[in-house]
Amino acid sequence: MPSAEIGIFGGSGFYSLMPGFEEVEIQTPYGAPSDTLAIGEVNGRRVAFMARHNRAHTIPPHKINYRANLWAFKSLGITRVLAPCAAGSLKPYVQPGHFVVCDQFIDRTRGREDTFFDGPDVAHVSTADPYCPELRALAVKSGTAAGLTMHPTGTMVVIEGPRFSTRAESAFHSSQGWTAVSMTQYPEVVLARELEMCFAGIALITDYDSGIEEAAPVSAAEVIRVFGESNDKLRRLLISLVAEIPAERSCSCGTALTGARLSYTTEPEE
Hints:
Strands 1, 2, 3, 4, 5, 6, 7, 8, 9, 10 and 11 form an eleven-stranded mixed beta sheet that branches. The protein contains five helices and eleven strands, in the order ββββαβββαββαβαβα. α2 crosses α5 (220-244). It has a single domain, classed as Nucleoside phosphorylase domain (Rossmann fold, 3-Layer(aba) Sandwich). It is an alpha/beta fold. A hairpin with a 2-residue loop joins β3 and β4. It is 25% helix and 22% strand.
């Protein structure tokens, strides 16, 4: 089995990181991941890349096998996960082409397999601060140095998909103060936390959601167009970020399961 330190997911319109990587097929206890993993070196670090929708984009967001994808990364020895995604803006100042480094999420999905602890092994991990603070700071630093517009915080509302929001839903999400909307950050970030991996959600804004700011309603074609135009920027950001990640972690992500398991013993009544 090959190994890697850093895992990178590719979202809509972003299906490869660099040429010349080794293609590796991995099976997991949760079934097959979305795609084969491409493994190679980036700035002297071992990196694994996976297209979360499959490189042919055959898997919609609500059908992604998130548990298999994260388990495959973990089986390679990965401790850090970089998760770029396409997202719609809910705020006028967050413009298409900008990047949002998420610090919070709102889950509005339904029925997704979102835990590794289905019993009898039970754990309740804290997601008060779901995204790795170390990776978030490094992502902002790398993007700013590359001349990109980076929003250092933002709440991502994750909808079920595959449809886009109605105008009423979009207006509601915006009124709550949330920053952007996407379909894949949940349950990726929570599953990474359960596996004690650091996770950075880096959203490329492709549109104003459902006519925010009187823009035309979002379409799949527009998302892919903007993402395609920004692929080089995203790739530069990720490659630069990989070089900035230290070998040792200074965050608490690696101990997320400490104190998370409950064990009760029922004593017989006298």
